[in-house]
């Protein structure tokens, strides 16, 4: 709860695709939290960063109207920063703006259920929901690592790896396992299965293109 945002936190905010802001009763007591909130909303406007507020035992209307503890802490900040009152005005505007965004309102005893929902939604927005590779994916890690070793994941070039064999030996299953291992390393990713079969159908290539672009 220091007065300044560290350079590492600034870099983390600027490099993030999603920011989750957790509001509690004492949130507004921290000037660094308020500065970070302002920075997050700047990145939302300039970089299209997704901002997800979580209201933990705090009503969103309390944040929006700056009532209760928020009113008390902001009044103290106005006294402390009376020579730089615009700073507090920016904090007030940021609190109002973030309280209007889609988010979650958590009450007591709801943590586990809501944490799971939040994680699932974030993973979905990042396209990180893993494929259901197999009912009993035994022994997949080793061949998946073998395939990954053939990929120069740090390069900027286009790469292709072929997995061939008779039907039913698990080529697609192995491909899904590799995808689950490496997809998080890329800004965008897609898994297209049954390309040969779909491409022979009417408008099949168009379906594949739409699936890839989506």
Automatic annotation (TrEMBL):
Superkingdom of origin organism: Eukaryota
Pfam families xrefs: NB-ARC (PF00931), TIR (PF01582)
InterPro entries documented for this protein: Disease_R_plants, NB-ARC, P-loop_NTPase, TIR_dom, Toll_tir_struct_dom_sf
TIR domain location: 1-126
Identification of the protein by name: TIR domain-containing protein
Species this protein is from: Stylosanthes scabra
Lineage: Eukaryota, Viridiplantae, Streptophyta, Embryophyta, Tracheophyta
